[in-house]
Design a protein that fits this description.
By secondary structure, the chain is of the alpha/beta class. Helix content is 36%, strand content 32%.
Length: 200
Amino acid sequence: MKCRKIFLLLAVFAFFNLSCASTMVTDVWKDKTYQGKAQKILVIMAAKSPDMRNIFEDRFSAELENRGNNAIQSYTVIPMEQLRDKERVKATIRSSGVDTVLISRLVDTKTIESYSPGLIYVVPSFYNDWWGYYAVVFADYGYTGNVAVAYIETNVYDVKTEKLIWSGHSKTERTEGEQQLINTFIQVMIKKLASSGIIK
C-alpha cells in the first residue's frame, strides 16, 4: 500500500512537470551607466490581438505591483489603433508621468521535437513483482512529441533620455495555452529584472 501511494505521488509529480510551461532567459543586456530604479513603469505588449495585449499587460502590471513597483497598462492610455502612431504614443507617454517603458514582443515561434524520458524508480520497491513493474512501465514511459517554442524580446527604456537601459531575450515552451505561457514568462522576466536592479 505504501509503495502504491509513493508511485501515485511520483506519477502526479511527473504529470505536472510535463504539463507546465518553462521559460529560459537566453540573453540579457544592461546599460552599466544607468544607476536608477524604475519608479513608474508603462507596460506595453506589442500584440496584434487587443485581448492578448490586455491579458499580458494586466498580468505583468499586477506582478510588478505585487513586488512594490508602480506600473500601468498601456492600453488604458493608448488605444490599439494609436499604437502605430509614434508621435502620439510619445506624447502620451510623456504626459502620463511614467519614467520607464517596458515593451515586449513575440519575435518568433517554432515547433521542435522533444523527448520526455520516464522516471527511474527505486529497486526493488517498484519492480518487486511482474504486475507492479508492468503498471510502472505503462503508466510512465518515455515518449517523443512536438513542442511549440515562443521567443520573446523585452526591452526597458528610460523616458527622460529615451535610451535603452535593459534588454532580455527568452524562449518559452508552449506545453499549454496562452495563459500558461504568459504567466511563466512574466514570473521569470520579473525575477531577472529585479536581479538586474531595474525594479524592486
